[in-house]
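Hi F.,

I've been meaning to write this up properly since the lab meeting, where we talked about keeping a consistent format for the predictions we share between groups. The idea is simple: the sequence comes first, exactly as it goes in, then the structure tokens exactly as they come out, then a line or two of notes. No screenshots and no reformatting. I'm using this chain as the first example so we have something concrete to point to.
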Amino acid sequence: MFQTEREFTLPLGYADDDGTLHRHGTMRLATAADEIHPLRDPRVRQNEAYLIVIILSRVITSLGTVPQITPKVIEGLYAADLAFLQELYNQANQHGAAAETSCPQCEHRFASAVNGSGGF
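Output, unedited:
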């Protein structure tokens, strides 16, 4: 079955303004729009490293009882949690994964590298 969402547990957790720690969440697969629309964001144009913040705020569908996942929430993550989510995003969306393909002339099947444009 095709899985469009992945559950995760952050290594450290996000502490909200009240001090509540949120560690469990869900991330959905990215769409083309999730990777294209943030490129228009002025924060990304000023600092390309901000792209992952915008993308994660779009694809993380839940984090504990946080009512809405915004760029501010992603900015508040510890570096270890950001790195964890970045890796999960790349795995879920198969950045750098091998895909099987075939030669259009001889139909020989072989593995080829898949490198998504988001490439974090």
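Notes:
The radius of gyration is 17 Å.
The chain has one domain: 5-113.

If this format works for you, I'll send the rest the same way.

G.
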